Amino acid sequence: MAKKPNIVFFFTDDQRFDTIRALGNDQVLTPNMDRLVERGTTFTHAHIPGGSVQAVCMPSRAMLHTGRTLFHIDGAGERISPDHTTIGEALGGNGYKTFGIGKWHNGGESFNRGFQGGDEIFLGGMCDHWNVPAFRYDPSGRYDATLPMCTNPARSNNVLQRRCDHVIAGKHSTELIGDAAVEFLSRYRDDAPFFLYVSFLAPHDPRVMPKRYRDLYDPNTVHLPDNFMDAHPFDNGELRVRDEMLAGFPRTPEEIREHIADYYAMISHLDAEIGRVIQVLEEQGRMDNTLIVLAGDNGLALGRHGLMGKQNCYDHSVRVPLVFSGPGIPANRRTDALVYLLDIFPTLCELADIKIPSSVEGESLANAMSNTRTRVRETLYLAYSDKHRAVRDRRHKLIEYVVNSRHAMTQLFDLENDPLELENLAENPTYASKVAELRAEMTRYRQAWDDQDSEWGRRFWNVCKWQDTAT
């Protein structure tokens, strides 16, 4: 019997879909991510379904690791239900040695259910990148569940006072996690295949990095996005959430360029550490039998539509990078199939010839890699908290807003002609039938995903009465 492939999964934090040079962004330097794109298959329209809370990464990661949809995870994803099999559990139960490194935002108990070992485990949402409160692997699973997040970068040195196994002051989180991955590979001698989950904290703010990477980018030459605005055109209900307070009001081109330069610098730093891990795989002769996945947990606005964060349903916040490379994966191939991150779980199962657990709701993407005409889905459902709901098909996206317990706005975008989502067609009589069609599809998803029964969906759908008459 052929040995199952090793799996290395690089997961980044707040990396938008359009931040890899090989995929068309000539402003950012990502030579190692470019190599993965060139030797693998990229899903250019990978999405998260959105998020139920402001910390979008928490439900996003719970969906990733369970393969379940947004309102079928346990709450907001602060823990993973024992009834929901995780990627690590599925692989570990089928002969894999599983090892997790870096950010885990879904509870210490569920980490140990999925991983037989680990290092530099960070259980919070964000922190000072230079002083990461990390845990060594605890076989008992009794990590300090009270470890708080650092929500104020200006006071982030307080992290040194917090309880954890160790803090390596002065080493950036990206290098801390890269070092742990390199050490795991250097010491691995088992005949069993491994699943190495490498979950970076970057490029999440506070956006700091070694000077040599910041020096790669001059804010004066960084391009502003064409959908930059000095303010969002209407109240979307989250204009003062934490992420939005990271830049002044109104937004200025100068400040946004600084943010983008820092963001790109963090991504280049991240890329270099990914390169170190790949180099070890090459030196060990493991590349030919190692599947590599690169993905991000959510996007980020950084000035687009006058926003800074990810608490919305625009493409800049719900579209993410997703690249598969390795044995059996077609090289230098791209597909625009409509997919979710939660599809990664069943895909890895199929590629490793493992039965997909019954709790998984995602779709395997294995066929879509070999046949780029495979569409996977015709539509996607997107949501944020109790304020935003969206649905998109191959060409159009409809977004509905509830703010202060009233239906505040409808947007319709033609993504083929207006990929930056600038021209709202919702009030154009020519598109009335498209609005009705997508509202009907939104209503179907409301029921299929049990959104109406969620604590967030009840508040949204009690306001949007049109769904009862949608046809």
Keywords:
471 residues; alpha/beta; Alkaline Phosphatase, subunit A; Arylsulfatase, C-terminal domain; 2 domains; 8-stranded mixed beta sheet; 5-stranded mixed beta sheet; 12 helices; globular
The CATH topology assignment of the largest domain is Alkaline Phosphatase, subunit A
* Helix percentage range: 25-40%
Number of domains: 2
Gyration radius over CA: 21 Å
Separation, N- and C-terminal Cα atoms:
53 Å
CATH superfamily placement of the largest domain:
Alkaline Phosphatase, subunit A
Q: Any idea what the shape is?
A: globular
- β-strand amount: 15-25%
**Count of discrete alpha- or pi-helical segments spanning 4 or more residues:** 12
Low-confidence region ranges: 145-163
Q: Numbering strands along the chain, what is their spatial order in the largest sheet? A: 6-5-9-1-10-12-2-13
Mind telling me which CATH architecture of the largest domain this is? Answer: 3-Layer(aba) Sandwich
Order of helices and strands: EHEEEHHEHEEEHEHHEHEEEEHHEEEEHH
Mean pLDDT: 93
Question: In CATH's first tier, which class of the largest domain applies?
Answer: Alpha Beta
The tally of beta strands, per DSSP, is 18
The biggest sheet, with number of strands, parallel, antiparallel or mixed sense and barrel status, is: 8 strands, mixed
Q: Structural class of the secondary structure composition?
A: alpha/beta
Description:
The protein has 471 residues and is of the alpha/beta class. The protein folds into two domains: 365 residues, Alkaline Phosphatase, subunit A (3-Layer(aba) Sandwich), CATH 3.40.720; 89 residues, 2-Layer Sandwich (Arylsulfatase, C-terminal domain). It is built from twelve helices and 18 strands. The strands form four sheets. Strands 6-5-9-1-10-12-2-13 form an eight-stranded mixed β-sheet, with helices on both faces. Strands 4-15-16-17-18 form a five-stranded mixed β-sheet. The protein has a three-stranded mixed β-sheet with strand order 11-3-14. Strand 16 and strand 17 form a beta hairpin.
